C-alpha cells in the first residue's frame, strides 16, 4: 500500500466525528440529567404546595370553628347569665302562690289582699318573662320527665295513666333551659 492510510486506521476526520458524537451523547446525557432533576424538584415543589394548601385550609377551618364556638359561648352567656339570679327569685313566686292558696276567698275582708297579691304575682311573672323566665304549670298534661318531677303516683279512673293530676310546686324555664322541674302528682291505671 502506498502512502495512503490503511483502511483499518481511522482518519483524523473519523476521529473528530467520533469525538463529536461522544460529546453530543455526553451533552444529551447531561441535559437529560438536568431535566430529570428539574422534573423531580418540580414534583417536590408541587407536593409541598399541595401540603401547604391543605394546611392553610385546615387552619382556616379551625379558625372559623373557634370563631363560631366563641360566638355561641357569648350567646349562651348572654342568654343564661341570669340563671342563678332567676333561680333565687323562684321562692318569691312560690310564696306568693302559697299566700293565694291559703287565703279564704269567701271572706270579703280578704278581697283587697287577694287582689293585691294576685296583681303582685302577675307583675312579678310578667317582669321575669321579659328576661326569658317562663312558668311551667303542667296540671292535666301528660307527664314529661324532662320538665316534671313525680312526687307521688295515684291510681285514677278519671284521667288516663301518666297524666299530671296535681301540681305541688310549679316549674320554671329560662330561655328553654329548665331552671326547676315542676313537682307533680301523676296518675296510674286503677287496679
Would you mind describing this structure in some detail?
Keywords: Chaperone, Coiled coil, Cytoplasm, Stress response. Residues 11-25 have a biased composition (Low complexity). Homodimer. The longest helix has 69 residues, at 12-80. The protein has helices spanning 12-80, 83-102, 111-129, and strands at 133-136, 148-156, 164-169, 171-174, 177-180, 182-189. The chain contains 3 helices and 6 strands; from the N terminus they run αααββββββ. It is an alpha+beta fold and 191 residues long. The strands form 2 sheets. A 3-stranded antiparallel beta sheet has the order 1-4-5. The chain folds into 2 domains: 11-80; 82-189, Head domain of nucleotide exchange factor GrpE (Nucleotide Exchange Factor Grpe, Chain A, domain 2). It is elongated. The mean pLDDT is 86.
Distance between the termini: 139 Å
What share of the residues lie within helices?
A: 55-70%
Strand count: 6
What do we call the CATH homologous superfamily of the largest domain?
Answer: Head domain of nucleotide exchange factor GrpE
Radius of gyration: 45 Å
Weakly predicted, low-confidence segments: none
The CATH C-level class name of the largest domain:
Mainly Beta
Quick one: overall form? elongated
Count of discrete structural domains: 2
Mean pLDDT equals: 86
The main β sheet shows up as: 3 strands, antiparallel
Oligomer: single chain
**If classified by CATH, what would the architecture of the largest domain be?**
Roll
CATH topology of the largest domain: Nucleotide Exchange Factor Grpe, Chain A, domain 2
Query: Strand portion, in percent?
Result: 15-25%
Region (Disordered): 1-26
Pfam families: GrpE
Protein name: Protein GrpE
Subcellular location: Cytoplasm
